[in-house]
């Protein structure tokens, strides 16, 4: 406050010699009036409340109360006779669910301390769901029970650090015993397990079981909304990604609006193709040998694209072009995956390769390529099985080391696409 008053009472010194005498007297007279108070804007921040655990354990008891509330509402869904929970929806009708993790996500308590306790257990349930894909209700109920009993022991005078160490040692032994008692889920049991996760829908459970039988247990199964009322299962053979042909003039089947080639060569370029002259060596070889050519690049400028289209329409070239999937570093990784599947070499500056100086030696081979307006499927010819297996192992190691769930999801998709294990369930 003293500093503020000092700043307000500071006067400006003006040399009379620099101004006319009349102006100088006016300034001196004006300085006799009190200085105008400066406008001060105040920014108020929301204060955080601090809660300390007293001798009677007030804060801990409040947190335990929040845990109990969450466990009670989630616990009703546990087991084969679990009941449903009705959830209010801000958008649309209320939802009736019997999935523990869905219920837990909707719990938001009014008391801040109780809400902290509920969020801690919800975090444990979410981690269980991420690791095992199920068991969130069991994790919530067990967490609440351990917290309740732990509170009794701590309030009786037990050191909480020693209690934690004892629990960790016990858990390590119990996990070993449970692993010995566990058994692999048989193929005929997969439908029942999947039906439970699908809310008791046996039809969806059977579709998931069929999909896993076709793409393997490490394959990727995606769900999307069907355009009709029927449920459909589509198994994609080969590597598929969401990029279609750049120009419709590349189409070979006008009815289906697709571009299909068998025994196709692939040119992979990790940069923009600006001129068709840069590809002249490869294009001449394609015309001479008559093989189909699929060009995958970061982008293709209009002049180069027009040259490819004109030669395709004249029948001189069997060719198609599309933009590489992904962006930035992920785009380069996808190109490397395609290169390993087809035996190609990615043309990029980092390897010292220039498009105008390479020839057919950088081209890859595919048994079949199918391109639509929004998708591309590449089926390998089987000559790179060892390289593909090594690449899949490398991606799986990266997946194990990844911390972000989004990164893990993308790595799993890459591994599944390389191994040809992708199934799409369209739900009507």
Automatic annotation (TrEMBL):
Q: Which SUPFAM superfamilies match?
A: GroEL apical domain-like, GroEL equatorial domain-like
Keywords carried by this UniProt record? Chaperone
> Which Pfam families does this one have?
Cpn60_TCP1 (PF00118)
Indicate whether Chaperone appears among the record's keywords: yes
Which segments cross the bilayer? none
Biological process GO terms, please?
protein refolding
* A GO term for molecular function: ATP-dependent protein folding chaperone
Give the similarity note. Belongs to the chaperonin (HSP60) family.
PANTHER family linked to this entry: 60 KDA HEAT SHOCK PROTEIN, MITOCHONDRIAL
Q: What does this protein do?
A: This protein binds RuBisCO small and large subunits and is implicated in the assembly of the enzyme oligomer.
Q: How does it assemble?
A: Oligomer of probably six alpha and six beta subunits.
Protein name per Swiss-Prot or TrEMBL: Uncharacterized protein
What lineage, starting at the top, does this entry show?
Answer: Eukaryota, Viridiplantae, Chlorophyta, Mamiellophyceae, Mamiellales
